[in-house]
Structures are given as structure tokens and as C-alpha cells.
Amino acid sequence: MLINGAICPNRELIDALDRLKIGEALYQNDLLLAANTDDNGVRQFANLKKSNTFTKINFPHQITLIKYPWDIFRNTADEIKNDFELLTKGRTSADIKDNYTRTYNDSQIFIEEGVEIKAAILNAEKGPIYLGKNSSVLEGAMIKGAFALGNDSVVNMGTKVRGDSSIGPCCKIGGEVSNSVLFGYSNKAHDGFIGNTVIGEWCNLGADTNTSNLKNNYLPVKVWNYNSESFYPTGMQFCGLIMGDHSKCGINTMLNTGTVVGVSANIFGAGFPRTFIPSFSWGGAHGFNTFILNKTFETAELVMQRRNQILSKVDRDILTSIYEKSAKYRAWEKRKYNEI
């Protein structure tokens, strides 16, 4: 069974996949959703649209498709609600033992075993709140749903979560977070604001990093698009930061509306840097150099060791491939090849 990885699953889709026979492909209009193949079918899959090998089956129900990076935060609230029902059905939440924590709409709050909560406010009136195993919500944190906190993650003291946010496993968040998604092992542990933002894995935002998610003229936001190699209209008034894996920024970093940061970038210094920062860039508003691979590997290894993880050969191969493919976006290399 081969499934379009951009689709968020729902019950109707799962039922349709269960019924799909070998040699059949599931479509919605011209969009390929899935195909049930034999060994030959796997080899033919790349040319599936040009082939009559598969019988086309129509899928009439609504689907959620992640076509652009901003679709991740735009659909987060709905997907948290869907996942909340699946994760909690027929189960009982662990109790909140702290007398100083205040909750609203308890039926939409689910706490896994091992969660630590101290003097926090959990408001699930606008959406569910899910706290994963061994996660922590520390003193003075205020959380509004929809919100999901991954296993072993921490909401630091005084954090303000303004809803519709999903935090992956082994993350730390602090300051103010609104309609944002952090993938696993990333930190925004200090004061500062992120909104309408997607942060990849193994990222770190320095203290008092702030992202703009609204232009001063209130016009729709444009962001860098790799397919068109130009700035693409999102059609949205609110769009913050899109940051790739292993990227970082220093203290007091200021990021403009709709900033796109590639993989393994390091941003620091005063002023607003450009709104498209290519992978393996080192610098800020004053200019950029190239963060070469062996230094990237050294940093990634140190960061991952702190979480008892290993930078594998597969990881190195992926980073190497991105380094090579992204070279054309590092315009300064054409003028003078500077490396850090």
C-alpha cells in the first residue's frame, strides 16, 4: 500500500484504504491518494498517472492536504481535535494532583501518566488539551486549547500558549506561542514571541527571539517557494517563520513576517535578516557565510548527544544532499566562497 504522504488521515480514508484491492488506486479528482500494489506495481508507481495498470477509484469525502509548509500550522487545531478523539477514546485521564492548577472544560483535557503540573491554567473551552507522557507544565504557565504537548516535553514557567499549537516530543517552550508547530527535539525555551510558525527538528531559538506574523500594511504574506524559486503568495494575512531542521538563532534575533530558513542555518546579530535564508547559512542582517559540512556534523552530534541520540549515516547523507542542492541559493559563494 503506497499512500500520499501529504494527506492527514481520517476515518473515511482509512475505511477506503481497507477496501482498496491490489491493482486499484484511490483518487480525488486528479489527486492520487493511495495505490494498492504488488511488486510490479511498486516499480510502476512513479508513472501511475500515465499508466492504465491501476483501476481508478474515486474518494468523495473531504481530505486535509499539506501542500505548503504553512498548511501545517493552518490545520493544526483541527488535527489536534481529531487526534484527541483517537488517543483518548475509552481511556481515563490521569488526575491533576496540584491544588493550585486551574482547569476549564475538564472533559477536553487529557493527561498521560507521569505528567508534572504546577500552578498552571489549562483552558480547553476553545479546543482540547493533551499532555503526553512524562511532560511538564511548570509554574505560572497559561495554556489555551487546542494544544498538544509531546512526551518528555516542557512548558517553562510563565509561558503563554495562545492556542492551536502542537509541540513535539522532547521539546521546551517558553515566552509566547500562538498557532505554531514544533517538531521533535526543538527548543524555544525563553521569552519571545512566535506565531503562525513551523519549526523543524533539532532547532533552537535563542532568548528573546521574536517573529513577526503580520505585516505593518496588513497585506497578505509572501514566502520563499523552492519549486518556483521565487516569493509565493500565501493568501494569508498571518504567517510567521518556517525553519528547517538543525537550524538555530542567537539571542534577540528578529525575524520578519514570512521568513523561510533552510536546514542547518545559524542566524545572529542585530537587525532583520533577509526573509529567505538558505540552508547552511551563517550570519544575519550584516551578511552571510557558509557553514561547511564537517562543522555542521560536529554541532549536530553535540546537540543530539544531549538527548541520547546519534547522528546516523542516513542523517549525514541527507544533510550532505541538502548542502549540495542548496548551494545555488547561497549567492555570496558566487562572489567569494567564505566558509565558517
Question: Which secondary structure elements does this structure contain, and how are they paired or packed?
Answer:
Layout: E1 2-3, E2 7-8, H1 11-19, E3 24-28, E4 31-35, H2 39-44, E5 55-58, E6 64-65, H3 70-74, H4 76-88, E7 102-104, E8 109-111, E9 116-117, E10 121-123, E11 129-131, E12 136-137, E13 142-144, E14 147-149, E15 154-155, E16 160-161, E17 165-167, E18 172-173, E19 176-182, E20 187-188, E21 193-199, E22 204-205, E23 210-211, E24 222-225, E25 230-233, E26 241-243, E27 248-249, E28 254-255, E29 259-261, E30 266-267, E31 276-277, E32 281-284, E33 287-290, H5 293-305, H6 313-325, H7 332-335
Parallel strand pairs: 3-5, 7-10, 8-11, 9-12, 10-13, 11-14, 12-15, 13-16, 14-17, 15-18, 16-19, 17-19, 18-20, 19-21, 21-26, 22-27, 23-28, 26-29, 27-30, 29-31, 30-32
Antiparallel strand pairs: 1-4, 2-6, 3-4, 24-25, 32-33
At a glance:
The protein is an alpha/beta fold and 340 residues long. The chain is built from 7 helices and 33 strands.
Protein described:
This protein is of the alpha/beta class. It folds into two domains: 2-65, no CATH class; 70-294, Hexapeptide repeat proteins (UDP N-Acetylglucosamine Acyltransferase, domain 1, 3 Solenoid), CATH 2.160.10. It contains seven helices and 33 strands. It has helices spanning 11-19, 39-44, 70-74, 76-88, 293-305, 313-325, 332-335, and strands at 2-3, 7-8, 24-28, 31-35, 55-58, 64-65, 102-104, 109-111, 116-117, 121-123, 129-131, 136-137, 142-144, 147-149, 154-155, 160-161, 165-167, 172-173, 176-182, 187-188, 193-199, 204-205, 210-211, 222-225, 230-233, 241-243, 248-249, 254-255, 259-261, 266-267, 276-277, 281-284, 287-290. Strands 7, 8, 10, 11, 13, 14, 16, 17, 19, 21, 26, 29 and 31 form a 13-stranded parallel β-sheet that branches. A hairpin with a 2-residue loop joins β3 (24-28) and β4 (31-35). The longest helix is centred in the first third of the chain and has 13 residues, at 76-88. The protein is globular and about 55 Å long. The N and C termini lie far apart (45 Å). 40% of the residues are buried. Mean pLDDT is 93; it is low at 336-340.
